[in-house]
Design a protein that fits this description.
The complex is a heterodimer of chains A (about 250) and B (about 350). Helices cover about 40% and strands about 20% of the residues of chain A. Chain A has about 250 residues and is an alpha+beta fold. The longest helix of chain B has about 30 residues. The chains are: A alpha+beta (about 250), B alpha+beta (about 350). At the A-B interface, α2, α3, α4 and α6 of A face α6, α7, α8, α10 and α11 of B.
């Protein structure tokens, strides 16, 4: 979905597919496309009519063969040294007629519905769980089974249990064919806040005991998550956008 | 019976008998009869009792919905506690007395087990169900046993339970600590209900109050704060439901989740409610104070969020499960030992 000039302001996408006698001609670029370098196809939200001034109308979803002539993929190295994201460039890429997903011009409604799936799943709760489990193992081996650390473990468990119930409640509505956009936004903001708190609070605990040795792998996991955690509240809709959706649900906008 | 069919008549009754103006009269020392008698006559006090014994045969989860409603209406009588006490007494073959009851759970052998401090709604209770090391007894709350905390506008009281004459000695044994866990989950559900009502009030106020030529609800900074408040309310509601969904008596882990999440939500919710209401929220005349006082009392009563998180975390650390996800997945079926 994202483009260099269209992040949170998704309606201003400029990548355009022009209808031709044989199908579509695609020009433009996408960014932050996860694992595009390993994928055979991508689904892109592009403009098929009108201009950016038309906002939510005139957008469509097209499936793009990433091996097609005119497609260029450039991986982006992230701040941990990994390459998860890519830029994808389209230069007069030809698409067949059947590349259209759903209805022409209904792209905005379609991605909004899809985002309800993306925003409420377990990946919005469990991103830091490897660190949590490694830290629990550390506490056990250090003999710290009670007190402040136990309180923190209990708090994480209680939040995880409640968030899991909320996520399942949204999933149940998705399974009924509904589009719980508001509820999914709520789960994502709560879930990512939880995921982001884990590396901070575990670093607080471990750092408060400079004489307690920690395993190399635990330290590595902690540093990786500390650096990557800010992305949790960016991907799939930023925290501020989600809170705006919730405010609209409260009747404030 | 659906949950709506269960809840609607209860809420209608609360709107009739437990108005805010009546609550304010009771806080000034007025009688609670106008609230209590309709509740007693309604049959809801025997919600958990088997239909064969004249009860409604509700599940603890269904009672949880009623507890949230009681919180939403700031019901100034110990409804949940009385329902629980009547069920436990009936199970023990003891006919429960008429009148409101609170639950008392002194820490036996702690050296500080004479008073239980700041028991919510104890000023309007007539009886106390006391659990010491798993043994329950019913006591009459004489005036000597109940000491007002002197907190302005509060119905909580310190209870010197040994001063309260024992009516039924040697009641049957329950799991040690069970009464405190039940009290905690009642408070959690009341927090969820009161927080829900406070959100409605705060959203309405933000729409009414105009500054800079427009309702403050149109300011993005205000919208983002109210979104956070709504998230915390939803989190509290789900945790309260989880706490009541593990059967009766509830599992300690489910109680811990409920009281931890609901308690932790309180300061976040009250601080945003106050920020949105501005100076008028500090006045006694405005109803905001009625909600925040109840929320603070419920947060600290029967173990705060840190107490319950420590119970839950210590249990996990002392066990052998090495996957927090597996633990959480199995939580509903899981009962802590002891």
């Amino acid at each position: 979905m994202s483009e260099p000039g269209a992040g949170s302001d998704l309606a201003s996408v400029k990548t355009r597919a022009v209808p031709t006698a044989q199908g579509w001609t695609l020009n433009g670029s996408k960014i932050w496309t996860t694992h595009a370098q390993h994928a055979d196809y991508m689904i892109a939200l592009v403009r098929t009519s009108g201009s950016s001034a038309d906002r939510h109308t005139g957008l469509s979803q097209l499936i793009v063969d990433l091996k097609a002539p005119g497609v260029k993929i450039r991986p982006i190295t992230d701040l941990t040294g990994d390459q998860h994201f890519c830029e994808v460039f389209f230069d007069d890429v030809h698409l067949e007629q059947d590349a259209l997903i759903g209805a022409e011009g209904a792209g905005w409604e379609q991605v909004t519905a899809e985002l309800a799936f993306e925003r409420s799943g377990p990946e919005r709760i469990y991103s830091s769980v490897s660190l949590l489990d490694a830290w629990v193992a550390h506490l056990r081996s250090a003999g710290r089974l009670d007190g402040v650390a136990a309180g923190l473990v209990g708090s994480f468990l209680a939040q995880m249990a409640t968030l899991r119930e909320l996520s399942i409640a949204v999933t149940a509505r998705l399974a009924l064919g509904e589009s719980p956009v508001l509820e999914a936004s709520l789960v994502k903001d709560l879930g990512t806040t939880f995921e982001q708190s884990i590396p901070t609070l575990i670093a607080d605990d471990l750092g408060s005991r400079p004489d307690e040795p920690i395993a190399a792998e635990l330290y590595l996991t902690l540093m990786y998550l500390s650096q990557i955690a800010p992305s949790f509240s960016l991907r799939g809709g930023t925290r501020e956008i989600l809170r705006g959706i919730i405010a609209r649900g409260l009747g404030l906008r | 019976m659906t949950d709506t069919e269960l809840l609607e008549p209860f809420e209608r009754m609360l709107i009739d008998v437990a108005s805010v103006s009546r609550l304010r009269e009771i806080l000034k020392g007025g009688p609670v009869d106008g609230v209590w008698e309709p509740l007693q006559e309604s049959g809801y006090l025997d919600a958990l009792l088997d239909p064969a014994h004249g009860g409604a045969g509700l599940s603890f989860a269904q009672l949880g919905a009623l507890l949230q409603a009681a919180g939403r209406h700031l019901l100034p009588v110990p409804f949940g506690e009385t329902v629980i006490a009547r069920a436990l007494l009936a199970q023990a073959g003891i006919p429960p007395p008429r009148g409101p009851m609170v639950l008392i759970t002194p820490a036996a052998g702690s050296g500080n087990d004479r008073y239980q401090q700041a028991v919510p709604l104890a000023r309007v209770a007539q009886y106390a169900l006391v659990e010491v090391n798993g043994r329950i007894s019913l006591r009459m709350l004489s005036q000597a046993a109940v000491r007002h905390t002197d907190v302005h506008g509060s119905l909580a009281a310190d209870v010197d339970w040994r001063c309260a004459p024992e009516m039924v000695a040697g009641g049957r044994s329950v799991q040690s600590g069970m009464l405190r866990a039940i009290a905690a989950v009642i408070r959690a559900a009341e927090i969820a209900g009161a927080a829900d009502q406070l959100l409605r009030m705060t959203v309405a106020y933000a729409g009414d109050r105009a500054q800079f030529g427009k309702p403050i609800a149109k300011l993005q900074a205000v919208q983002q704060q109210l979104a956070v408040m709504a998230e915390q309310v939803v989190m509290a509601r789900m945790a309260a439901q989880l706490g009541c969904s593990s059967g009766f008596p509830p599992s300690l882990s489910a109680v811990a989740v409920a009281k931890h999440i609901c308690g932790a939500a309180v300061p976040r919710i009250t601080s945003i409610a106050h920020a949105i209401h501005g100076a008028i929220g500090i006045s006694e005349e405005h109803d905001l104070q009625l909600y925040v006082r109840t929320l603070y009392e419920c947060r600290i009563a029967a173990g705060s969020e840190i107490y319950w998180a420590t119970v839950l975390g210590a249990d996990y650390l002392k066990g052998s499960c090495d996957s927090t996800v597996d633990f959480v997945r199995g939580m509903r079926q899981m009962h802590l030992n002891g």
